[in-house]
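Quick check before the chapter quiz. The format below is the same one you will see on the exam, so make sure you can read both the input and the output lines.
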Amino acid sequence: MFKFAASKQLRDFTLNLSLQVANGEIMVLMGGNGAGKTTVLRMTAGLLTPDSGTIEIGEKILYNHQTKINYSVQNRNIGYVFQNAAVFPHMTVYDNVAFGLRSRHLDSLTLSERTDEWLDRLAISDLARIKAGHLSGGQKQRVALARAMATEPHLLMLDEPFTALDRRNQIAVREWICLCVQERNIPCLLVTHDLGDAEAVGNRFCYLDRGRVIQDDIISGN
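Here is the expected output.
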């Protein structure tokens, strides 16, 4: 279970909201530009510090204003896939997927096995030795998702993961995201502007406006 109850003074308004996402559930965050969607992801990831509140994943408190708990980015164990599928263009696909694992100083056998596993799961094993800068948008998004999942995160966050993809790749990446969340049984936050994407992958729909939740519904059929 992911729990977010925090506030942050932004330029034009104060973000102040509460969210809860169960294990195996995908919550879709929607709202206009500047509504606070990406700010929620950034605060959860530790890239931005709230002014007050708490952020928790399971039994682990990531941030608590009163007790001064504030885990660093690398110690939050969150898989974060950015809108532009931020891969390292000068590195091979294999090294991109293995990047987060190397920072955890795993033994070479475990690192190799887990990297190979996620290359296979995301159907990019044949691209392993290719420099990521030469990939298409859909391939880069799969590499970014494999890299995020290889670290066995306790929470998956995706910021507009479908915008750079053609229709065929949109459908494929949607399916992979749903499968990853279900198999790992982890909560997921997904930001999108597209109602079709929300209905295709989400279990719940949360609409934000000026940093507040104005609608929170179960998505029928999911």
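If your answer matched, good. The chain has six helices and eleven strands.
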